[in-house]
Amino acid sequence: MAPGHFWEAWALAPEHQHDVWRDDQTNQQIKERDALDRKANTIGPAKLAEIKRLFEQGQKARADLKLNQAMMIFNKIKAANVPPYSSTAAIILNTELPLHPVPKDCEERFRRADRDLSQGRLDQASNGYLEITRLYPQFEWAYMGLAAIDLRRHQIEYAAKEARSALALNPDLVQAWLVLVHEAIGQQDIEGAIRAAETALALNPEQQETRDLMRKLKEEAEARRLPD
Prior knowledge:
Blueprint: H1 23-40, H2 45-63, H3 67-80, H4 85-95, H5 104-118, H6 122-135, H7 140-152, H8 156-169, H9 174-186, H10 190-203, H11 208-225
Helix pairs in contact: 2-3, 3-4, 5-6, 5-7, 6-7, 7-8, 8-9, 9-10, 10-11
């Protein structure tokens, strides 16, 4: 699950088990994992343990919405070039964290708004996110907070508008693309949903729920092509 609460509303499917990669993609992944395993075997256990500990700290900072701390930690892991942690850290930095450092006041306001959202105080959360967009208009996560509220209120068109505002600031923000998947599904536009999901999957091939979602969308598209 994404860190904090403001991304929970876009989750479209509860539990999935199957992969969606085609055979050629799966074979490529196996080759890449083998290469990473060979490299990892050349790195000492102490270094691996240190990077693993750092990675866990980064994940906790991200979950606690300590965004600058998370960015600092994942940048350190990325620079260490230790598989598989460094490649995953690069994906997190590119697709799941803010594009720019976050002012301290902005970060604190965002945590308060997220807390309101998690406790169901949608009006207070909305006011908090809106205030952030006025004070810090380049902070893309505030727009995603508004999108999460819109989704909870079943206002998908408004959520998609906020997601597009976030993408205008950070086109690699995976969760914004998933909101657009949700919008396309609501419009019965399965092909549009697949295109948005493909973009999200290209940005983060490691995200299992996106792969599961893609599988379901392709199954639906195939079912619609079959004769009655």
